[in-house]
Amino acid sequence: xxxxxSKNNWSNEINWSDxxxxxSNVIKWKKxxxxxxxxxxxxxKGINLPELANKASKNKRLNFEERISKFGQNxxxxxxxxxxxxxxxxxxxxxxxxxxxxQALQKNNNISEIYKNIATTAINLGxxxxxxxxxxxxxxxxxxxxxxxxxxxxxxDYIRSLTNKASALFQLANYExxxxxxxEGLIFCDFFPLLNIKRKNLSKSGNEKxxxxxxxxxxxxxxxxxxxxSVSPNSRRFALIERPDYLFQEPWFLRSxxxxxxxWTEVNEFVVLDGQPQKKYKKIECLTFSPDSxxxxxxxxxxxxxxxxxxxxxxxxxxxxxxxxFSPCNRVVYGISEKGKWAWVVDNQVGPxxxxxxxxxxxxxxxxxxxxxxxxxxxxxxxxDNKQAGKQYDNFGANNPPAPEISFFSPDxxxxxxxxxxxxxxxxxxxxxxxxxxxxxxxxxxxxxxKHIVYSxxxxxxxxxxxxxxxxxNYDMIGDIGIVSPDGNHIAYIAKDNNKCFVVxxxxxxxxxxxxxxxxxTFSPDSQHIAYIAIEDNKTFLVIDGEExxxxxxxxxxxxxxxxxxxxxxxxxxxxxYCVIKDGQEYKLYDNIIESSPFLxxxxxxxxxxxxxxxxxxVVVDDNEGKSYQAILPKQKIRFDSxxxxxxxxxxxxxIFLVEESIC
Length: 664
Known about the structure:
The longest helix is centred in the N-terminal third of the chain and has 21 residues, at about 150-170. Strand 41 and strand 42 (about 570-575) form a beta hairpin. The chain is an alpha+beta fold. Helix content is about 20%, strand content about 40%. Strands 1, 50, 51, 52 and 53 form a five-stranded antiparallel sheet that branches. Among the domains are: about 5-210, Tetratricopeptide repeat domain (Serine Threonine Protein Phosphatase 5, Tetratricopeptide repeat, Alpha Horseshoe), CATH 1.25.40; about 475-590, Methylamine Dehydrogenase, Chain H (7 Propeller), CATH 2.130.10; about 605-664, no CATH class.
């Protein structure tokens, strides 16, 4: 938790209206900057500036040598070598000075000023990769510098290091990140090297935009005449069901003209996989690819019943088949019924039959174990590896009838939990132990690191989020499932009270709105930022760390951070058309943005999305439009092969093609 902010803690160290003595006529601190804004800036970076400044004030009574000793062993010797290197560089021998800076770092590697100086020298010598490394190290040492020498001196090194970083990135042609570093430094002061680098960045990046080139190849996959199709998870394979046209206007069965009973006629449907026709069946359903895209399964009907067909090979025939899927490790799974009882089949091995079996079946992510709920004598119970593994209960899941995803393993495979119901009370059963009872329980899940368990609970007509068995505040309603940040240190969820919605993060309520779009509450990968989409006064807008962005007529339930947490993407409806927005920048408006996009390239530099405009469909990179096709296939994702290459499937003239693109 943050230390309570108090100006008396540290603001007297800085007079924002004064020039810094060492850099007179070079740096002028902005008069309008507020201590609170500065605190918020560093809090976002995980740095509690007031707390560090308090420590610095306690170190004021120490003399110079005593302060230097806090950097660690040989710190004083490192400072002496740093001064020698400074004088050597001033005399024009920067190569020798660079070597002496290196010796200083060998003595002590905790002093940001040495990293700042060697980074500056590295830039002058054209060693830009080394300069970038040293600059980032200097920036990371800012907290230690504040603690020992105070905010003012630490900020000098911080801004100089941001300048070095921006310069190195510019020379390495990483203009976007260079511009970001410039913008950060200019928050504090108008420093002419930063302003100069920013101008160069804007000019260079403007030129780069026009130079974006795309190269593509097309590979024929299959003809496309059917209406039922499936695309593999890797977006490289395509399967469809060929069936007579008249079946699309008929029920799923055909009635014999000479009989009042349902009967199967010689329909002869068949699957076409990557252009190759498969065996004919009287009825085909549930085209399903495995997660690794190597296997295709579907359900085929013949006179003797239904069978799962896996990679063209029939498994056993059964009276009824349902729930066909693959496990995360590519094991084929489906349910069967015989004489009114149901069983799960895993890898063609039939489990025990019960009065009923719950869906879905859940798999341990670490080993081959699996679990599901089963019903016998009108009671439900957990089954693990086809053996009963717990008490019997009246029901299971969040509602009646049962809701899905009520039993599952933690990501590390060590725990299993589900929602049970008994005597009109709901509760979590975790590893066989019954937890607190409530009037209702829902939204159960484990955090990604398996260290936390989260669910929503209702009692006395109020809902709360239970995090690691501790109840949060009561509300009229809990919206989204509680979201745990990637580092496991924060939790957030949507709550509703008195007809107003708001995000609760770490039990602190955010601003209240008419509505917050479901499934948009998102933590950045570094856990430092949170974003969601809210509605107020019939306007929809993105909220980032509590700050409302530009409003639109409506927005999609979609928020995406880049892997490095520095960029954010969403999409909006404006003037009757749709646009993608990256970091507040609106791209061109189109008739529609195709479902399952946009995406960011792995390096976060480009946003890629599929659109329709008129009768044409094409993929857009930033604002660069690709080749037009009859359709970009739905039910797929644009897949990346590298930071600058990707692929997807298209339909053109009733044929399916694999399109592979690279950005130059």
